[in-house]
Write a structure and sequence with these properties.
Blueprint: H1 3-13, H2 18-25, H3 29-36, H4 44-47, H5 52-75
C-alpha cells in the first residue's frame, strides 16, 4: 500500500489533526501535508516520531513496500 495514503488514513483513524501529528513528529504542518500527498519521501527516521496508533500501520506499509522492492529486484 502507498505510504502517503497509509499515513493519512492512520492519522485520521487515530483522531489526530494534521497540525497535532506534525507537532508530535516535530515537523511543520506543510511538511506533513507533503508527506501525506506523496510529494516528499517518507524515511524510516520519521517512524520513531509517530504515535503508536499511527506508527504500526505505517510500519507495516513500509515493510510491504520493501518486500515488493526485493521481489522486483530478484526478478531482474
Amino acid at each position: 500500500m502507498d505510504i502517503a495514503i497509509t499515513l493519512r488514513q492512520a492519522r485520521l483513524a487515530a483522531g489526530l489533526e494534521q497540525k497535532e501529528l506534525a507537532r508530535l513528529m516535530e515537523v511543520s504542518p506543510g511538511f506533513l501535508s507533503d508527506l501525506e500527498k506523496g510529494r516528499r519521501a517518507f524515511h524510516d527516521r520519521y517512524l520513531e516520531r509517530l504515535p503508536d496508533a499511527v506508527r504500526e500501520p505505517v510500519r507495516e506499509a513500509l515493510i510491504e513496500l520493501k518486500r515488493a522492492e526485493i521481489r522486483y529486484l530478484m526478478q531482474e
